[in-house]
Each structure stands twice: as C-alpha cells, then as structure tokens.
Amino acid sequence: MTYFNVTHISLVLRTCLKLNRGFVTHASIKHSFNINFQRLFGYVPICSRLIHTSKSNGQTQKDGITLLPSPQEVTLILRKNEFNKEFASGSIKSYDSNQLASNDPIEDTRCEGQCKLTPGLLMGVFDGHGGPACAQVVSKRLLDYVAAAMLPTDTINAILKEPQGALVDTYNDKIELINDLKTIYDNSFKEFLLELARTPRDDSNVYTAMEKGVLQLDSDLSREVIEPFYSNGVINQKTLSVALSGAVVCISYIDGPHLYVANIGDCNAVLGTLTDDNEWIAKKITKEHNSENFDELKRIWNEHPDEERKTVIRRDRLLGELAPLRSMGDYRYKWSTELLTKVAVPCVGDKAIPANYHTPPYLTAKPDIFYHRLSPKDKFLIIASDGLWDMLTPLQAVKLVGEHMKGKVFYNPLKLPKKNIQLGDINELLLHRKESLKSKPKDRNAATHLIRHAIGGTEYGIDHSRLAHLLSLTPDVSRMFRDDITVTIAYFDSEFLRQCPA
C-alpha cells in the first residue's frame, strides 16, 4: 500500500470536504459539530484533575525529514491509559479498559465501580460532543444515581440520617471536579435521595432504577442552571457548559448471571459467546439511536407536526446538527425557545437556538434497557464508544478478544495440572506451550489489543506504518480520520455461571 505524508492526506481530505464528495468519516462530521459549538461557547474547565489523554504529535524532525514514532513509541502511546482490575469472586473475573484520544482534550470518559449496598458491578462508557464537560460530569455522577435508585426505602432513609459519601467504590477514577461544582452536585444528589425516600416504588426492579437514575441526573443538569437564574438572575458558566454540551451513554449493571445494559445514543455493548463448536458469536445487545435506526426516526417524526418532517431530521442528523438522536445534556435541543433566549443566547449568541426550532423538546435522555441472562458460553462483554465501532464490526472485535484470551494465558507462569505428573506429560505440555506462544498477543490488555487493531489492522495483520501515521497526526487533522476511542471489556467466570441455578 502506498502512503502519503500527513500534509498530502490532510489536503486531500479537506478538498473532499469542501467539494462535498468523496470519503467523509463520522469523526469528521462530529468534529465539524464540535468546532462550531466551541466557537460559540468556548471551553469552560470543570475538572481540577483530568485523565492524561492529550494527544502529542509523535512526529520529530531530523535533517528536514519527518520521523514517525518507532514501534516501541507507538506501544507507549497505546498503553498510556490502559487499566486492569481482577476480582476474587462473582461472575466477573476481571476487566480491561483503555482510551485513546483524538480530540484534545478527549471527549470520551469511562467509569467502573462496585455498588457498596447491592452486589452488582456498574460499568459505563460516555462519549461527549460539543466539548468534554457533559461526559466528564455524567461519568462522575451517574453510577451513584443508578445505585441509589436500586436501594430500598429504609436504606435510603438510613443514608439520609447518616450520610456515607459515594454509594459506589470506583476504580481508576482520574477525574476530579472543581470544588464549587462538587457542592452543587452534592446538594442535587441529596434532593434525589429525599425524592426516592418519599416515592413508593418496586425496589427490586433494575429496569426502573436504571431509567430513573439516568433521567433524574439529566433533569438535574438542567435544574442546576435554571434555578439559580430564576432565583437571582445569575448564569453559572460551568453548569451551563455542562447542560449545553452533551454525552451519549452505555452503562451496564452485572449481578451474578444477570446483565442489564442501558443505552442512550450510539455507543454499543457486544457480548462475546463461544459455541460448542468453538466458534465465536457476537451478540450485539444495544441498538444505536441514530438515523440508521428507522424505529427511532419514526419516534421523532411522531413527536412533532407533519410540517416539520423535512426539517426535524436533515442530512441524517437532528435538526441538521446532531448525529445521536438521544443523549444526556444537549439542552440546546430540549429547552423552550423562551428559556434558550434568556439563558443561552446571552452567553452563546443567537446560534444557540438551532434553525427550524419550533416544537421542543427534540431530544430525550430516556435509555433503552436490555436484559440478558448470562450462560457459561458467554465469555466477555465489550462496551465501547463509536470510535471503535467506526473501525471494527462487532464480530471482528469479538474474534480479536477471543484470540487474545487464548494467547494471553502465556503471560502467566506454567502451572502443572496435578502433583504426580509424568515427565513425558510435562514434555508434551511444554511443546504445546512453545507452539502456542506463536499466538501470544503483543498487549496483555485486551482493550489495548482492540485499539491497536482498530487503528493499524489490515487483513494481513498490524501495519506499523499506518498505525504510526495515524497516531502522529495533530488533533485538528486526527479528528477527520477517527474519533476518540474508549473500550472496556469484562470477562465472565464460566464456572460461576455454570453453577448458577436456572
């Protein structure tokens, strides 16, 4: 394959975009939306500490010649944000996660945590747009909202009497919100607990709890802007930036053999299942909320007058602007025209109100919730932002993780299966291990393995030149070729699932 230098690639792509023909990536469309939004509003910092994902240009110059990063440097870039967690009990043995930025700052976030008062594990991927603010805030708050909505009323009352802080023990949490936002968010969460305490509900209904947690947090993102404005006329730039930016969400709750997935937007969850014939099957659990989902298009058309049919979805996007048709935040598509005029226009300008904005709300954060009963054949769950699914099909991703599972066992020391093993058996075991070492993956972390193949994979394997080129692009060019990528992979304990009663 012939490779052009970065300048040539950039010029070709920009020409295609200007002529409105040729190959235009989903990432380039999303980048265009982000640039337009941030020109209006700008970036308002909401974190005092942030995951280290800013893209540095891997190119160096020597004697006027551009040098691409070496294989070792590429590996360092890919592994910068990887994480692994192992568990001693339960249906999840371990999980791998990783992120690779294209935007600067990255607009994806992720979170995982063990519920303190219920046995389940929560895992989420959040893909932001219009800036990182909404995704960062939602990733910090949503797990607690969902965990709280699952608790019985007497437990809620006990928490209100003796506050105990977060309801979820999170892992690898590298985002820390600034103090004034913490105070606002703590007050909102307390109000949510008070509402739960006085609202009769089915304590065991996970569907209801996940939906309640999502919708309440989304409502709070709006209320935290509106209430201070109506009380004293003050517009808080930080809470406004969160409400006007947006995030799509995919969050799972795993309790023993019970898997629940709540999806809002175009992230996806895919289950890797191994058949009796040792063939991998990809079970796509989620359905994207975008223009390729005809049921979603019909829902939106039915919610607005017939005369808006040609304007409510234009160029496969909501009001010609937003690709996901459900999201958290994005109150430019939810607030009334009157409220946008009072709150958003003074800060953002007249373009805060989209064209053909007649019958809001046009957008909802209501999740689709899916349930799957795990079996011993289900080996892992992949949750990832669309940056991965733009590059790999669900089946490709599942096969890659399946191959990685087979190969990564050889990172571990050899353990003999029994005490009184014969030397001939040991020799055969060593020969098999030597042969199998050929399939040993380059990366111990499966999320890194997926990202490496998504960026640099070809039908003949990894192409280092392609990988190095794409990793060395500056953010303004990189975002035209690919999106931020976030991947979390949870591995199931087959023996545990085999012993679960039907």
UniProtKB/TrEMBL annotation:
Any one Gene Ontology cellular component term annotated for this protein: mitochondrion
The residue stretches assigned to a coiled coil in this entry are none
Any idea where the PPM-type phosphatase domain is?
A: 92-492
Pfam families in UniProt:
PP2C
Q: Which UniProt keywords apply?
A: Hydrolase, Metal-binding, Protein phosphatase, Pyruvate
Q: Which SMART domains match?
A: PP2Cc
Q: Which SUPFAM superfamilies match?
A: PP2C-like
By its UniProt entry, which InterPro entries does this protein fall under? PP2C (IPR015655), PP2C_BS (IPR000222), PPM-type-like_dom_sf (IPR036457), PPM-type_phosphatase-like_dom (IPR001932)
Q: What GO molecular function annotation could you give as one example from this UniProt entry?
A: metal ion binding
CDD domains, A to Z: PP2Cc
Keyword Hydrolase: yes or no?
A: yes
Q: Tell me the PANTHER family matching this sequence.
A: GM14286P, PROTEIN PHOSPHATASE 2C
Say which family it is in.
Belongs to the PP2C family.
Q: What is this protein called?
A: Pyruvate dehydrogenase [acetyl-transferring]-phosphatase 1, mitochondrial
